[in-house]
Amino acid sequence: MDTNAQILRDDWSSWWAVIPPALWTLQGVEHPLRTTPRQKAHPVSLWELQRVYGAEPAYQAVLHCARCFHKELPERDMPAVPATGTQREDLHHWLWTTAGTSATFRVLGACGFRLHADDPQIKPYVSLDWIWLHPYSRHRALFRTAWEIFIRRYPYILLEQPTTAVRISLYGRPAMTLATRDGQELRLYTQSPECAQHGPMRQGASGAWDCYAKLPDGHICTATWVAPKPIRDVPAVRETHGQRTATR
Ligand SMILES: [Zn+2]
């Protein structure tokens, strides 16, 4: 054994290494993400993948990210990433990439949406079933800036078991609650606030959003939506030292 080695790299530590996949080609629709001045040197793109001939490496990269997701959150199911030959119109996969060094693209993360169009009572919507970003790509607003693209692409999005980080980054975004045929309540995110019965609301001078749709009885719908306070204005829950130690 090399006694000069200050740290040990063995099989166990290589299990912990998170190697992002690299790709030579990508098939799909590229959406460049809005970047901060600091990110200008390494712009990030979001790719909406297409199940076409030659797209297999991209789906291999998605599968790699899905495995990383499952390794990190083993209590969640392994995400479904069928091979490109499989006809799965309901599953949509996206990749975050930046320019690679040895290959054309370096994959920073992936996510998977599932289309739900089986309940005639509510509009078709997608669920964001899983998302994984490389640990070094987190806290760089990659999900928040991608959301602007997702919510235009899919008007109604349900978050499937969101992590705290995802929930915080979507804090204050418009959403509405709809009831399915079997009485289940769904919280769907929308681009602009919508009334569950009458669709998009209008923003008034005060900044609040109102439905104002005319009802059959001559009244107007009073549904309204007010943006929540900025998260920094929400008082933090402070625990006493006693409470903190008691929960350990
Ligand atoms: Zn209404």
Structural notes for this entry:
- The mean pLDDT is 88.
- This protein is globular.
- The longest helix has 17 residues, at 56-72.
- The protein has 2 domains: 18-191, Gcn5-related N-acetyltransferase (GNAT) (Aminopeptidase, 3-Layer(aba) Sandwich); 204-248, no CATH class.
- The strands form 3 sheets. Strands 1, 2, 3, 4, 5, 6, 7, 8 and 9 form a 9-stranded mixed sheet that branches.
- The relative contact order is 0.10.
- It is 19% helix and 26% strand.
- It is built from 5 helices and 14 strands.
- The chain starts with 10 loop residues before the first helix and ends with a helix.
- It is of the alpha+beta class.
- The structure holds zinc ion (ZN).
Tags for this model:
248 residues, alpha+beta, Aminopeptidase, nine-stranded mixed β-sheet, three-stranded antiparallel β-sheet, 5 helices, 14 strands
**Alpha plus pi helix count:** 5
Largest sheet: 9 strands, mixed
Say which CATH homologous superfamily of the largest domain is assigned. Gcn5-related N-acetyltransferase (GNAT)
Low-pLDDT segments, ≥5 res: none
Q: What Rg, in angstroms, do the CA atoms define?
A: 22 Å
How many beta strands in the DSSP annotation?
Answer: 14
Structural class: alpha+beta
Mean pLDDT: 88
CATH C-level of the largest domain:
Alpha Beta
Oligomerization category of the chains in this entry: single chain
The bound ligands are: zinc ion
State the shape.
globular
